[in-house]
Specification:
The chain is of the alpha/beta class. Helix content is about 35%, strand content about 25%. It has 2 domains: about 5-180 and about 295-385, Zn peptidases (Aminopeptidase); about 180-295, Alpha-Beta Plaits. The radius of gyration is 24 Å and the shape is elongated. InterPro entries: Amidohydrolase, Bact_exopeptidase_dim_dom, Peptidase_M20, Peptidase_M20_dimer. Keywords: Hydrolase, Manganese, Metal-binding.
Length: about 400
């Protein structure tokens, strides 16, 4: 397939995916459409037991290392208001974060790599992952965890992925180290003794105690985290009482902490819990704290970031410095398994992600395909012979 024909085909596929968004763990039509495209190309699909999403496999002509590429496939519960001619046909849902863009990049790379499979030494697994946006619970973890739990990726030595981003169309944004926020949640119940509002000395004022806790928690980032490390603590929910003249016996608050550095993640928890418990004690009440560690930060390998910059230059692609933000991204779970690189692909002035007017420029897709295809080839070569003029590729995330 010529480059022009491939690009047109991928744009057609992208528009289909954009018109048919599906929520996390319900991406049935999306999965089947991806399956049909892959099968038409003669690309093998692994049997994994996944209910939605799938893993394709490209077996090189010679034995060698195993790497993986990832695209995510789920949409969001948002009513689209972009005015695009290929706007969502599923009421109340849209691809409001660009997963249609990301999966099309992975699809294009799979097609390109399959076409040259006889020249490859090694194996490439291409993940079309469900539920990146899904709210993770112990019973229903995020999509990356479910994919890893199949065991199909146990032999993978390096992971690579892309995500659309605001910026110059087709530019590759690369950053080593932490690039997303570790997603941690806390929930706190303040316990005291309720009383009439006219007689506060006969009970405890859990509302005043809660207000003090909220204020004090803002010092976690400002006084406990290195000021050059991105981090934020936000209180997002407060609840206490149900009438105007009674001091309640309980109050509730919850929120989230986002950090990019592993050491900061534990510091934030330890400091927050001490503040909550000790501030409560100072007001004569008690606090029950629940802390939930979600997905870690995406921690890009410095080695693979350097390789990515070289690859982009060789492909004639523009490269730009990447950045860290504090949104969650479950590609981080793959990088806990093996090192790799997660890059952003410029998609123009997209408007705010997770909003009804979000609209990446799909003409950035082909740049993502070129990058992902090229770094896959390079990764197989380097992992097969890490002494071939390059740094060692061992897991830098251990």
């Amino acid at each position: 397939m010529s480059a022009t024909a491939l690009e047109q085909s991928l744009l057609d596929h992208y528009r289909w995916f954009h018109r048919h968004p599906e929520p996390s763990y319900e991406e049935h039509a999306t999965t089947e459409h991806i399956r049909r495209i892959l099968e038409e190309q003669g690309i093998e699909i692994l049997k994994t037991g996944l209910k939605t999403g799938l893993i394709a496999i490209i077996r090189g002509g010679r034995p060698g290392p195993v790497i993986a590429l990832r695209g995510d496939i789920d949409g969001l519960p948002i009513t689209e208001n972009t005015g695009l001619p290929y706007t969502s046909e599923h009421a109340g849902y849209m691809h409001g974060c660009g997963h249609d863009f990301n999966l099309t990049v992975a699809l294009g790379a799979a097609i390109e790599l399959h076409a040259v499979r006889d020249d490859l030494a090694g194996t490439i697994k291409v993940i079309f992952q469900p539920a990146e946006e899904g709210r993770a619970t112990k019973e229903r973890p995020t999509g990356a965890v479910q994919v890893l739990n199949t065991g199909a990726l146990d032999d993978v030595q390096a992971f690579f992925g892309t995500h659309d981003a605001p910026g110059e169309v087709g530019a590759i944004y690369i950053k080593e180290g932490g690039t997303s926020g570790a997603v941690d949640k806390f929930a706190v119940t303040i316990h005291g003794h309720g009383t009439h509002a006219a007689e506060p000395t006969k009970g405890d004022d859990v509302i005043v105690a809660t207000a003090a806790i909220v204020q004090s928690l803002q010092t976690v980032v400002s006084r406990s985290i290195d000021p050059v490390h991105p981090a934020v603590l936000s209180i997002t929910h407060l609840e206490a009482g149900n009438t105007w003249n009674v001091l309640p016996s309980e109050a509730f608050l919850e929120g989230t902490v986002r950090t990019t550095e592993r050491v900061d993640r534990q510091i934030a928890k330890d400091r927050a819990v001490r503040i909550i418990e000790n501030t409560a004690a100072a007001y004569g009440v008690t606090a029950s704290v629940q802390w939930f560690f979600g997905s870690p930060s995406v921690d890009n390998s410095a080695h693979w970031a350097a390789v990515g910059r070289r690859i982009a230059a060789e492909e004639g692609l523009e490269t730009r410095p990447g950045w860290a933000d504090l949104g969650g991204e479950d590609f981080s779970y793959y990088l806990d398994h093996a090192p790799g690189l997660f890059v952003r692909i410029g998609a123009g002035d997209t408007n705010a992600p997770h909003g009804p007017t979000f609209a990446p420029d799909p003409h950035g897709i082909i740049a993502g395909v070129r990058f992902l295809t090229a770094i896959a080839k390079r990764a197989l070569a380097e992992l097969a012979d890490p002494t071939d003029g390059h740094a060692d590729c061992t897991n830098e995330n251990d």
